[in-house]
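Quick board copy: two proteins, each given as sequence then C-alpha cells.
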Amino acid sequence: MSWKAVMLLFVGILLSAGLVVAAIMALLFRASGGPVEAGDQVLQEIWNGNLARAYDLTAPAFRKDTSAEEFGRFVEQWRLTEAKSRTWHTRSVSGDAGFARATVRLDSEHKVPLVFEAEREGETWRVTVISIEVENYPLPIPPGTLVRIGRGGVVEKQ
C-alpha cells in the first residue's frame, strides 16, 4: 500500500470514529432533554404572559399540591415574567424522572437559579417541581417567599 492509501484509510477511520462519537453524544443529549423541554415550555408560556397555560403544562402531581394562585404568586415573587433569557446548565435523567438546572436572567440583570424536576408521562415530559437554588441566589430572600412549588406542596423561606 502506498503512503497515500494509508493516509486516506487513517483519515477515513478518524472521520468514522468522530461521527460515531457525535452520534452517541447527540443521543445522550436527546435522552436527557426531557426535563429541559418541559421546563422550557413552562417558562415560555410565563414569558408570553399565559400563566394559566404554563400551569396547565405542569404534571397532575404538581397541580394536585400547588394551586394556580400559588403558582402565580411564585412567578410574581421571582419576577419570572420579566425574564430576558435562560441558560440550562445541568440535566439528569434516570428512567422516567429527571431534573434540569437553569439560570433565568431578568430585565434588571438579576439572575434566578431554578431547578425543574420532571417526569415522563407516555411520550411527554411534565414539570413536577420548580424550586429556587437558595444557596446560589445572590440576594437575601425575605421570610415568607415561596422557594419551592409543585409535588409535595409549597415551601416558604423561613
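And the next:
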Amino acid sequence: MHMGRVSPSPPCFSPTPFSVTHHFVALEKLFGLCEPVVTGGGDKIDWACFYTDDDTYKLWAQIHNGMDNANKNLYEDFKTKILKYYPGAVNNKHWYATWDLDNLVHKWQCCIKTKGEFTEFYQDFYSISTWLIKHNWISVLNQQKALLCVLKFLPTESCIWDKMLNRLEQKYNRAVDKPWTMAELKETVEWALGNTMTKV
C-alpha cells in the first residue's frame, strides 16, 4: 500500500455520503492489487482509517474502538458502522458530488509525469465527471475545463502543454467558441507523454 496520504496514488477522501462509498471501493481495489494481497480485517481497517483526513481519522478510530472486541477485526462490520454516519451513503453507493471532482483535480495537479499516471487519473476523472453530467450537476464544458486545469500543469520543464497546444491547434482547428472535445484532449496528452508508462 502507498504510505503517503498526500501522494497522487492513495484514495482521495471527502467526508460526504458520495465520497465515502467511493473511498471504500477504491481501497478494496488496492487491497487486491497489493503484493501480498491485503486480506486481514484488521489491516484493512487500519488502511481505511489511514487514508482519511485528521478529523475523519479521529471519528473512525472512535467508532472502531467502540466495537465489541470480538468484532474489531471484522472489516465488513466496521464499514457498515462507518456508512451509518453518512446518511444516504448506503443507498447511493455510486454517487458523487462536485467536490469529488474538485478534489481529484487538485490531487493530480502538477503530479502527472507519465502516461501511466495520466491513465490512472483519467479513469477516475471520467467516471466522476460523466456521472455528474448525467445527473445535471455539471456541464460538458465544466468537464472540459476541469480536465484542462490538470493538463495545463503538466511538467513545465518538458514544455508538454506547449506541445499539446500546438498539436491541438494544428490537428483540431477550432473556432474560439468551440472548445476541444474530451476525446481530442485525451488523444493529445497521450501523444505528448509518449511511451512514459512508468517513472524513470
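Board note added afterward: Confidence is low (pLDDT under 50) at residues 3-8.
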